[in-house]
């Protein structure tokens, strides 16, 4: 299936590396009229701009609500949004600090709401339709050890997907979650490169492997395309069947 985003504007958060970077490249390959790459990482965005000058970059710390509104509100209407920026640190039950909890909720949940509202409100105001994908995690449903704050932030994100799917769905804007197991990115390497941690997970995965960034990008492109015209409010595991076991 070839996804064609001709005439559409796309925006990806967390675009400097990992899944977000691959999404930017795939949006260009899919002929998107304009691609916004949004991220906190100025150096990563500069490298991206050097390689792909047609991409419009916006540096912003998405945990800062007002700054995000200020920087993203002036952009053109966005028809395909992927809320991909995310953070994870080990948080062990009994030792979770307020700072660690807020850190995960601010970026993995609140920022997705803020960006989705900015994008969707503009579509509604201009009478246009579009689609949003929130990159969640299998951790929203199955809780890996010592991931309390991350798991809660992603479970809240899935609920946010449901509410936004209802409220913006009435305006023709679809909102879905994509929930990967481990993905081969800097985040995936940081959390799962120790086989003692990753092997139990892999052993429970019927397909016997983790994700590549393209596995996730393929699903996002499908959900954002007209081929998924009736998919709204879906929480979609991309996990090789891990969720079943
Ligand atoms: N890698 C995995 O194993 C995995 C598994 C399941 C879900 N996910 C989810 O996929 C998404 C992308 O993960 P990844 O593996 O590409 O991660 P990554 O760490 O490789 O990249 C994260 C991106 O988010 C950006 N970012 C972080 N904090 C930010 C902030 N405050 N403001 C703006 N940008 C910020 C980073 O600069 C970077 O570009 C995340 O939401 C993550 O939770 C990843």
TrEMBL record:
SMART domains: PKS_KR. Keywords: NADP, Oxidoreductase. InterPro entries: KR_dom (IPR057326), L-xylulose/Carbonyl_redctase (IPR051737), NAD(P)-bd_dom_sf (IPR036291), Sc_DH/Rdtase_CS (IPR020904), SDR_fam (IPR002347). It holds the Pfam family adh_short_C2. Residues 8-189 form the Ketoreductase domain. PROSITE patterns: ADH_SHORT. One of its GO terms (molecular function) is carbonyl reductase (NADPH) activity. One of its GO terms (biological process) is glucose metabolic process. PANTHER family: D-ERYTHRULOSE REDUCTASE, D-ERYTHRULOSE REDUCTASE-RELATED. Belongs to the short-chain dehydrogenases/reductases (SDR) family. Homotetramer. This is Ketoreductase domain-containing protein.
């Amino acid at each position: 299936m070839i996804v064609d985003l001709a005439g559409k504007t796309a925006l990806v958060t967390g675009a400097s590396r990992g899944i977000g970077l691959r999404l930017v490249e795939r949006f260009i390959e899919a002929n998107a009229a304009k691609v916004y790459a949004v991220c906190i990482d100025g150096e990563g965005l500069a490298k991206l701009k050097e390689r792909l000058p047609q991409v419009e970059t916006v540096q912003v710390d998405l945990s800062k609500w007002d700054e995000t509104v200020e920087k993203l509100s002036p952009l053109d209407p966005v028809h395909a949004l992927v809320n991909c920026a995310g953070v994870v640190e080990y948080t062990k039950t009994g030792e979770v600090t307020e700072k660690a909890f807020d850190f995960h909720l601010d970026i993995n949940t609140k920022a997705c709401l803020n960006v989705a509202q900015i994008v969707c409100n503009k579509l509604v105001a201009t009478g246009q339709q579009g689609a949003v994908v929130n990159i969640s995690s299998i951790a929203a449903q199955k809780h890996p050890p010592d991931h309390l704050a991350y798991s809660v932030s992603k479970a809240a994100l899935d609920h946010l997907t449901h509410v936004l799917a209802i409220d913006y769905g009435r305006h023709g804007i679809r909102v879905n979650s994509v929930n990967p197991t481990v993905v081969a990115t800097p985040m995936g390497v940081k959390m799962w490169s120790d086989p003692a941690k990753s092997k139990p997970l892999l052993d429970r995965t019927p397909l016997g492997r983790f994700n590549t960034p393209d596995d996730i990008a393929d699903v996002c492109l499908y959900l954002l395309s007209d081929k998924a015209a009736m998919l709204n409010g879906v929480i979609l595991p991309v996990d090789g069947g891990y969720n079943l076991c």
